[in-house]
Amino acid sequence: MSRNVPTALAAHLAQPATTICYLLKVTPKRAGVAVFGLTTLDRDVTYDDGTGPLTYRAKRGYTAFDLDTKADLSVDSSEASGLLAEYPADGVTEAGVTAGDYDGARFVQYLVNYEDTSMGHVILNSGQVGQIDMIDSLTCKIELRSLTQILKQNSVIELTSITCRAQFGDARCKKPLIWYDATVDTVGTESDRTFNVDATAGYVQDVAGASFGTGDGTTVAFQLKDTQGVDVTSGYTITAIYDAGVVTTGYTDSGTGLITFTTAPASADALTWDGSVTLPAPADSYFVPGVVEWLTGANAGRQNEIESYTAATQTVTLVIPAYQTIAPGDTFKIRRDCDKSKAACIAYGNLLNMRAEPELPRANATDIQSPAQVS
C-alpha cells in the first residue's frame, strides 16, 4: 500500500533514530459527543490535522495493534487498546460505551514526529469504529474497521424490496418531517419507557422564518403556512410578520390564518413569519410509528422509537427503554415516522415517491409453492 509522506517527515523517518508516535482521533456521530484524541506517547501531543488543533491525551493512552490489509475489497481491520477514561476528553468512557456514544464513530490514525509536528503526518488507517469490548471496567479494546466496510454496507445499485428503501424524510422520500415540541407531565410504572405528555402545553411546532408568500404589488391577502408549506388555519400564535425581512404591523389577521396587508407587498418581497402552531389533540396511534428526541433531562440528545400512543391519556410508550430515567418536566420533540409499507405511503399521500416494489410475488403462507401477490 502506498502512502503520501511529507518530504520533511520522510527525511526524518530515514534517520537512524526517530521521535515518532501514533495519534488516534475519534469523531463520534452522536450529537453532543465531542471529538477526542489518544496518543501512544507518554505525554500529551497537540496537533492540527487541518481541521483545528486537538490535544491527543496520554493519560489513558492507547496501544496500536498491527493493521491487516489486503489488495482486494476485504475490510482492513486493526485494534487499539487502552484504559477506560473517567472523563470523555481523556478517551473512551464506560458510560459512553453503554450509551452507544461511539456507535458508527469515524476514526483516523496518524504517525507524526512529536518533537516537530510541523512536519505533517502520515495516515496509517481510517474508517469506522466497530465493536468496543470492556474488560473488568478497567480497559477496553476498540475495533478499527476500514472505509471498505462502509462501502460494503451501501450497495452501488438498488435491489428490489417489498418495503421502501428510502429513509423517511430524505431527498428520495420527499416527505417533510414535522417535529412538535412537548413536555413530560408524569411518568408511568416503567419510568424509562412510559410517560404522559403535558396536555396543557400540547404539541407545538416552531415556525420561525416560515415562508407564506411572495408579493406581486397587487395581492394583499395571504394564507399562513408552516415550515413544511402546509396551510395554517388554527391553533397558531404570531410573534412577528416580515415583509422582505423587515417587521411589519400593516396587516390584519382573520383568526383563520389569512393575513391581509394594508398595502400590497412589493413584487418579489418574501413574506415570512415567526410564531408557533399547536397540533390539535392527535388520535390514538397517531405517533405510531414515531420518534421522540429528548431536548432536556438525562436523555438529552438521544432518540427513541415509539411503540404506542394513547390519545385519551396522552400516554407514550417507547419500544426500547430510554438510556436514563424519564422525569416530569423533561422536554422533547416528537414526530411521526413510516413503516415503509405501501399502505403507509398511501396514507401519507406519497405513493409516487415510494422506492419499493410492493407488488412483487412472494410465497403464500399456506402453500410455499404458490407465490402470492400482496398489495
Shape: globular
Number of helices: 4
Radius of gyration: 27 Å
Q: What is the total tally of β strands?
A: 25
Measured as a percent range, the helix fraction is under 10%
Q: Order of strands in the sheet with the most strands?
A: 3-4-2-1-7-8-9-6-5
Let me know the average pLDDT. Answer: 89
Give the ordered list of helices and strands: HEEEEEEHEEEHEEEEEEEEEEEEEEHEE
Distance between the termini: 51 Å
What proportion strand? 35-45%
Query: How would a crystallographer describe the biggest sheet?
Result: 9 strands, mixed
Computed structural class: mainly beta
Give the domain tally.
3
Poorly predicted runs: none
What can you see in these coordinates?
By secondary structure, the protein is mainly beta. The protein folds into three domains: 7-153; 180-199 and 281-337, Immunoglobulin-like; 204-279, no CATH class. Helices cover 7% and strands 37% of the residues. The chain is built from four helices and 25 strands. It has helices spanning 7-13, 94-99, 148-153, 342-347; strands at 20-27, 36-39, 45-48, 53-57, 63-64, 77-83, 106-113, 121-135, 139-146, 180-187, 194-197, 203-206, 210-214, 221-223, 236-243, 246-248, 251-253, 258-261, 270-279, 290-294, 303-310, 315-318, 331-336, 362-363, 371-372. The strands form five sheets. A nine-stranded mixed beta sheet has the order 3-4-2-1-7-8-9-6-5. Strands 10-11-22-21-20-23 form a six-stranded antiparallel beta barrel. The longest helix is centred in the first third of the chain and has 7 residues, at 7-13.
